[in-house]
Amino acid sequence: MSSKANARTIRANELIENRKWLKEQITPFFFNSMQDEPEALALLERELRSLKTNRRLILADRDKSLILARVNEPGSLYDSLRHFQDREISYAMITHSDGPMPEMTQALEIQRFEFDRKANDDIKAWREVQLPLPLTRKVATQLRHSYPEFDMKEFDRLLKTLWLNNENYVRISSPLRVAQVLQLQQKATRSGGLYLYVEPTPDAKISRVHFAVANPPQKEFLLQLMEVFNRLDLGVNRAYCLTISNGVHPYFLGTFLVNRRSGETLEPGSELFRKLQQELYNTQIVSTKSYTYREFVTAGVMTGEEASLVNAFIAFCHTNLAHNQPDRFGLDDVQSAFHAHPEMSLQMVKLFKARFDPAITESSPVYGSALQETLQAVNDYNTGHRYLDEVRRTIYRCCLIFITHTLKTNFFVLEKQAIAFRLSPTYLTELGAAFTGDLPQATPFRVTFFFSRYGFGYHIGFSDIARGGWRTVIARNGDDFITNANTIFRENFVLAHTQHLKNKDIYEGGSKLVLILDASDLQRGSERQMETWRLYKLQHGVTHAFLDIFVTDNGIARSPAVVDYYREDEPIELGPDENMHDSMIENIARLSKRRGYILGIGIMSSKEVGINHKEYGVTSTGVVKFAEITMAELGIDIYRDRFSVKFTGGPNGDVAGNAMRIMLERTPNVAIKLILDGTAALCDPEGADRRELSRIVLKQDLDAFDPQALHPGGFLLYRSGSRREGLRELYRKVSKTNDGLREEWISTDEFSRVYASLPFTVKTDLFIPAGGRPETIDKDNWQNYFLPNGAPSAGAIVEGANSFITPEARVQLQKKGVIIMRDASANKCGVISSSYEIIANLLLSEAEFLAHKERYVQDVLEILEQRAADEAKLILKRHREQPGLLCTEISDALSGEINEHYATIYRFFQKRPQLCMQPIYKKAILSHLPRMLREEPKYAKRISRLPQKYLFAILAAEIGSSLVYRGDREADFEATLKGHLARMVGKEL
What we know:
Low-confidence stretches: none
Helix content: 40-55%
Mean pLDDT: 91
């Protein structure tokens, strides 16, 4: 036989042996799953033995798929995944042989990856899908047999959705595997976005782990999961992982067949299962990009949960210290304090666990000894670098204050996607004036800190029953993130305090929830959808964390995993603000009701079963009323006379857009000379064309305005649609001349200079800042508001946006003759509307509200007009009586007077709850309500259903505000004196 023939015979024998070995050593499920890849299987059979000299064998490598055969060794999967960590995996299959490969000591590992994620829009047409009937019947039968608890009402939608995501998977997979995937998705949806289940297999040494996550981390997630299994000494024999879209966001659906390398079985209830739960759920919080993960978790210094807690410590200390001293306590400084000394980080973790582990109480000696250890470690910290040691001791003390002043946390709740810490506000006093001197001189009622994988932030409230908006600031680059992280606490505090001043007319005090979303690692444009997913993930996770600690039974946190040192019900109302979409508004209300929060759907305003701010223009109703009364003080009737106005905030924004709509409808002679939003700036000396502006108001952003509608001398400066020429970024400017339109492209420097200067320099009668970042006009630039002749660019400012002007700038502008109606007064009607929405949620069924919604909203709008007019007139009346008082000072004084009355009256009824339903006080409660509720007996009698704290608060708000708006201070004082003397004389008699 020739050598060639001999070689062919050897190869043929090898092929037969390889094929035989594969059939014996690889599960039949593998061959079922690979029936669509016959060429890859043929290549594997032919070249299996090449793995003796090569680490990997490429079986298929295409744009949307990659199949590898590898020597199974530690880190083999990691090595593969790290080569395409930025690619989004839609399907992954990992399979190991049962025994070593021929002539080798290692087993075979086969990795199959697909990169074919479907977009949300691809899934929305699921109703039109026609599935093969035999396939549908087989999967349905399997579901009923294997998962009888599966809700078959969702079967059609879920199966069709899976088909649209990965038709091939549904076609070639067994009915059992398809059923497992459908069960996983339904379970994840119904359990808040996380689901873990372990079931036995015929092989007692192997367990099947099902893990599902709604809206999972998009990068390196599979790698992170495999690292968890490896860290817990769990070998993954096989894995099948799908990432699909449900039409809104992705779902990760994974099945892993694992065995404990030491031989211990994995089963529900075991210590190993508990650790697996902790670590898998914690993948939603700890980022693979964080230093603590890379250096401490993967090295076994910390668990994943401990790393998450340390990251939360870092975020809290940085945001509490940097707003006052950013150069000394920047993010790098705070991070290095915890990263350079992991033993100090773990000491803080130890103290935290001693205080909040449900198995331990504060009275336990464990906490006392841990506290003493930690105090000593902080006080004795000394590396010989005096300045650095002082900075780090301050950081550690801040962390110590954080732990000792936290009253409850959901850290020990397993199924969480964010961590919540409810603090006693006295921690601010302990931090000291050095770190609080830049904050308003007021103490909050509560401070709650939230931490998540993609962001963090605070809820700050100034009274027991509090309401305010939920704002999420998106940081799209590293500079944005650092800048916002430095100032988020002060911005939140100021906004919440302003809200408290604003809420003087209603039963809720003021609060604000502000989060930072870190999207700095995402590429603009191509990853914009991922930014939205992150936004939803952050808000959804924080909502659950909020409910973990604030859902109570008899005042005590319902979850047994939450150690509660506060032990009272806390009715906190939220509302939509920046970057809160309608779908999330409804989601938050739904979750609150399902989880049994004291307010139910009343947790969130602007719902479908509510009053949407943008739809009804509730905030703008008050802003325009303030503008009407302020301009009348200056001799201008806005409904008859010609006047001009400028806006920050665009036509598609809630406040600015509705203010424009109201003015276009009711003020025939208004000239809107400037509009500035996030997409463009419009400047027109004759005022924006009414017809063109009406076309886009509340429908489109300003960049949709047709430049042909400009008057000569007007221009549009576009922030959107920039272009690059080499290294230069250019912005489009379109001007209207007598000869027509002229287009030019200007540099970033010129764009920034013109764009930023417009609110200061465009001359109008009235300025309504109804959008833009807080503190746009501050102590350093307020002088720019005055024209070369010394006159203000607008003589009256009605603040539609919160904190657009800093307190120092307000004072200086008013001293120069500008009338300013501050945010706490002028834009208060939005929060008043939300207050009445919550009242409706508490007193009406959803069907009743929807049936009478328009009538109810009109009743609320009537109240808003009255509340705005009451305050605007009183401010100007007091200003006329005492011209030396600034309008903003009067506004603050009114809020102070009402809130002081509120606090006193609230405490009065809190001590005498039996008074609330007496006729005179019941009448006061009814007078606070919209006409429909107070005049129809069937609704009026329902006020007794309100939580008792709400009755106290409504009485306090109604009596307190009426004493100020409709009272006579001298007559009231005289009546108080007479009452006191009557009692005094009566006692003597």
